[in-house]
Structure formats: C-alpha cells, structure tokens
C-alpha cells in the first residue's frame, strides 16, 4: 500500500514537471521565434501525450489505492467475523465439556460401586483372599494415584510454598 501511495506521489510530481515543461516550451523564445512551427507543435504534442499517459497512470494508481484500502477493510471485517465465530464455537465446546464432566462426576462413582459390590472374591478358584485384601491393594494404589495427581496438578504452588518456607541464605550469614 505504501508503495502504491509513493508511486502516486511520484506521478503527481511528474505531472507538475510536465506542466512546467509545457509552460516553459510555450514561453521559450527559441521555439516561439522559430520559423519551424511544426517542430514547436511536435514538442508540445509530445509533452501533452506524455502528460495524458502520466495522468492516466496516476488515475489508475489512485483507483488501485482505493480498491486496496477497501479490500483491506473487508479483510479485517472478515477476520473479525471469523474470530467471533471461533469464540462462539469454543464456547459451545466448553459447554459440551462441562456437561460431559458433570455426567462423569455422577456416573463414575456409581459404576465403581456397582463394580465393587458385583464382585465375588470368594468365588475365584485358588483365592483365599477376602475383602480386606482388596482394600489393602486397591486403597494403596488409589491413594498413590490420587497423591501423584495432586502433586502434579499443584506442582508450581507446592514449589513456591517450599521456597517460601526455606530460610533466606542472605540472613544466615
């Protein structure tokens, strides 16, 4: 866009230059006193033809600049609309995840209890272990998994808390 604007400014300078050249040629004592009127007309007609070409190019550049500006405005509007649609889609996805989480919170414990109470540990052949053994194994595994998950989830807070609890090395000296 800046390049087209700069080219339009240059073409304006060329138009000013050609205007000055035409005026100088019309007022030139060499061309006005010359018996060669054809030469004088040829020079002025060449200047007029150049002026017309530069003026047409200048008009085209101004039109391209206006078209580019309107295209950029349309692009920014479309981009804004796209971002709004993405935000709406993200909101609906978040709502779906929230609903899925609520369903999981309700049905996960229910499925655990139905699975637990549906087990018959005494009916497995070659097993003399009972319910206390189940709770020793599953309880320790569950405790380990929950502890590891909590530590992983809050590792930054735990790290900050531990650093705050340590004595300052500068105060020890």
Coarse morphology: elongated
Please report which band the strand proportion falls in: under 5%, 5-15%, 15-25%, 25-35%, 35-45% or over 45%: under 5%
What's the total helix number? Answer: 6
> Total number of β-strand segments?
0
Distance between the termini: 64 Å
Give the fraction of residues assigned to helices. over 70%
What are the segments in which pLDDT stays under 50 over at least 5 consecutive residues?
none
N-to-C SSE string, H for helix and E for strand: HHHHHH
For the residues shown, what is the average pLDDT? 81
What descriptors fit this protein?
single chain, 173 residues, mainly alpha, 6 helices
Overview of the molecule:
The protein is an all-alpha fold. The protein is built from 6 helices and no strands. It has helices at about 1-25, 30, 35-120, 130-155, 155-165, 170. Helix 1 runs antiparallel to helix 3. It is elongated. The relative contact order is 0.05.
Task: Give me the secondary-structure topology.
Layout: H1 2-27, H2 29-32, H3 37-118, H4 131-153, H5 155-165, H6 169-172
Helix pairs in contact: 1-3
Compact description:
The protein is mainly alpha-helical and 173 residues long.
């Amino acid at each position: 866009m800046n390049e087209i604007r700069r080219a339009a400014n240059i073409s304006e300078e060329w138009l000013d230059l050609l205007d000055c050249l035409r005026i100088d040629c019309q007022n030139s004592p060499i061309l006005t006193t010359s018996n060669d009127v054809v030469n004088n007309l040829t020079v002025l007609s060449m200047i007029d033809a150049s002026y017309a070409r530069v003026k047409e190019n200048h008009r085209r550049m101004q039109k391209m600049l206006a078209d580019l500006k309107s295209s950029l405005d349309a692009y920014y509007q479309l981009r804004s609309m796209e971002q709004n649609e993405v935000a709406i889609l993200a909101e609906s996805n978040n709502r779906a995840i929230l609903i899925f989480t609520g369903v999981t919170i309700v049905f996960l414990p229910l499925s655990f209890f139905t699975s637990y109470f549906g087990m018959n540990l005494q009916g497995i052949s070659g097993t003399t272990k009972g319910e206390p053994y189940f709770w020793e194994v599953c309880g320790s595994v569950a405790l380990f998994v929950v502890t590891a998950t909590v530590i992983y989830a809050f590792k930054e807070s735990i790290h900050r808390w531990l650093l705050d609890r340590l004595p300052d090395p500068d105060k020890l000296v």
